Amino acid sequence: MRPTSYLSPFNNIPEVTSGISFSNDLTLSDCTLRDGEQQAGVVFTKEDKIAIAKLLDEMRIPEIEAGMPCNSQEDADAIAEITRLCKNSRITACVRGLERDFDLAADIGVWGVTISLPIGILQRKYKLKWDDDTYIRNMYHLTEYAKKKGLYVNLSPYDTTRAEPAFLDRVMTEAVRCGTIDRVRLVDTVGSANPEAIRYLARRIKGILGDKVWLEVHCHNDFGLAVASALAGAMGGAEVVSTTINGLGERSGNTSTEELLLALKLLYGKDLGIDLTRLTDVSNLVEKLSNTPLQKHKPVVGRHSFSHESGMVVAGVLEEPFVAEAYAPELVGAHREILIGKKSGAKSLEAKLNENGIHLPEEAVRELLTDVKNQALAVKRSLTDDEFFDLVRKYQ
């Protein structure tokens, strides 16, 4: 059986692997339907949310944060329907620090809630306006109230990476002491911490939480480091990684579900039991429903992630695809494509012609290649199949 990847051997040398470990319980929570929709300009209808959730459920995504039921009746109805339909995924809702939010979440039947309770210095000063003792007192009250409602409790002291260290330690200590918190979310709300800082914070927080309370890491991508930071948090002891399909989310987005899963499985050998062959399908669905076009070179699911045009590269790919790819496109439900354009070589054209049962003399191929390059320059892109075969007809 042909291997599905060909990776760097340096990944596995002791000098690299000695500092890497993950929780045996490591799992994933996808929050496309909540944080993904918070991206400016994105609107999901009830039908959109259900369609995305059903596909995530089919993929065996362990947990889906389905939205904020307080936003609208339609959102509440969507979350209730998702909770009813999904058989593989646990469904959670995000709530504010208001009892009526907990009542609504419990009424629509979600498994758990994520309680947004900002802890960053600026968040507390300008939004929450609570002193330290008030914060702790309300944390106790709200989490106790959630537990009485029969909900799994995930405390999200967001903007965690910009909190006062001493107060953060106090909150974590009280989170264990109160006995009503199942998980704490470490949130890099504006992507302002580097991966090393996230790993340090995860270790620091887990050192306080111990085994009684799980840790989740939720990273934003303002510096393009969300996946690296999420991996660092998992290496620091977090049991849950929070992600979104296509990295959708506020400002520059969140940790990308597809990139995180591929990195875990292939680069670190950590398989979360999720069906990766549906990643391209769910990416396409989210792209369409969010009306947010992907970069063509987006890792894992971009349209050109497995496309090749350069003649030198294609010559190698035709002999052995791993010359220019780390893993097979089929692994994520995609396919390889040879593009014809300015950078093509004769072998690219011959391969394309052979695929379609066309044989041209060597001299004709050389002339065709000149035509291809000239047209690609004129249109400033690679050629479509129709454009290419229009040129071919001249030589048949």
From TrEMBL:
Record-linked InterPro entries: AIPM/Hcit_synth_CS, Aldolase_TIM, LeuA/HCS_post-cat, PYR_CT
Keyword annotations from UniProtKB, A to Z: Transferase
Domain spans labelled Pyruvate carboxyltransferase: 26-280
Pfam families with a match to the protein in the record: HCS_D2, HMGL-like
Entry similarity comment: Belongs to the alpha-IPM synthase/homocitrate synthase family.
Protein name: Pyruvate carboxyltransferase domain-containing protein
Organism: Yanshouia hominis
